[in-house]
């Protein structure tokens, strides 16, 4: 019982695994990925509660975070793109933060999706946009200022993600932790065949 209690407390307050379901973080994360969640990345919380005993660090732009969203009513995995006090502005999927325009480089195109490398404030990551005209409702946003103790998050699959453009800003106390690696991955479209190339893969 003591060992079981220790494991449960560890998973609650220190680290855990989180399953990726859906396409909102493609191409960075795929449906079927299991990611490592560092729950001590930002806060030390009492196990089984959301009560923070101490702040360890602050989320930074580019961090991939796991969120227990009260508005969405479910767990989300998104990327932090706006910090408290930032002015966020988007026009036709071009992100502008505090007047700084994100730089894009096209990497490739497949099945109606364009993969890009996005760079903002010296941090870069891959993202995906659709080259069809069907979904443009979330391509424009703001300008809006991120409130204190809240964050603006986006999915890397910009035209297929419900994020801060839909759910508004994310309070800090709803951020569970940060993910920086895939532990393992199973392809649900291929009878859950392991994606061996993604095992222990580091995330940008």
Write the SSE topology.
Elements: H1 2-13, E1 15-19, E2 33-38, E3 43-45, E4 52-55, E5 64-69, E6 74-82, E7 87-91, E8 94-97, E9 100-101, E10 103-110, E11 113-120, E12 123-130, E13 141-145, E14 150-154, H2 164-167, E15 170-171, E16 175-179, E17 182-187, E18 193-194
Antiparallel strand pairs: 1-2, 2-17, 3-4, 5-6, 5-16, 6-14, 7-8, 7-13, 8-9, 10-11, 11-12, 14-15, 17-18
Report what the structure shows:
The chain is mainly β and 204 residues long. The protein is 8% helix and 46% strand. It is built from two helices and 18 strands. A five-stranded antiparallel β-sheet has the order 15-14-6-5-16. It is globular.
Helicity range: under 10%
Q: What's the SSE pattern?
A: HEEEEEEEEEEEEEEHEEEE
Q: What would you call the shape?
A: globular
Overall average pLDDT? 92
Total DSSP helices = 2
Order of strands, widest sheet: 15-14-6-5-16
Strand content: over 45%
Q: Indicate the low-confidence ranges by residue numbers.
A: none
Largest sheet: 5 strands, antiparallel
Rg to the nearest angstrom? Answer: 17 Å
First-last Cα distance:
39 Å
Derived structural class: mainly beta
Tell me how many strands there are.
18
């Amino acid at each position: 019982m003591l060992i079981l209690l220790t494991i449960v407390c560890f998973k609650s307050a220190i680290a855990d695994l989180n399953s990726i379901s859906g396409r909102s973080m493609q191409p960075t994360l795929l449906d079927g990925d299991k990611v490592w969640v560092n729950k001590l990345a930002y806060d030390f919380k009492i196990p089984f509660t959301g009560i923070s005993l101490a702040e360890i660090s602050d989320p930074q732009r580019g961090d991939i975070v796991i969120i227990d969203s009260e508005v969405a009513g479910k767990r989300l995995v998104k990327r932090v793109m706006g910090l408290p006090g930032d002015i966020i502005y988007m026009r036709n999927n071009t992100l502008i933060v505090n007047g700084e325009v994100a730089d894009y480089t096209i990497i490739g195109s497949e099945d109606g999706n364009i993969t890009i490398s996005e760079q903002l404030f010296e941090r870069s990551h891959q993202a995906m946009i659709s080259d069809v005209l069907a979904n443009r409702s979330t391509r424009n946003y703001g300008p809006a200022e991120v409130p204190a103790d809240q964050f603006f998050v986006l999915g890397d699959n910009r035209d297929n993600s419900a994020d801060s453009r839909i759910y508004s800003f994310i309070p800090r106390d709803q951020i569970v932790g940060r993910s920086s690696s895939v532990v393992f991955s199973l392809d649900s479209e291929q009878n859950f065949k392991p994606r061996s190339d993604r095992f222990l893969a580091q995330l940008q």
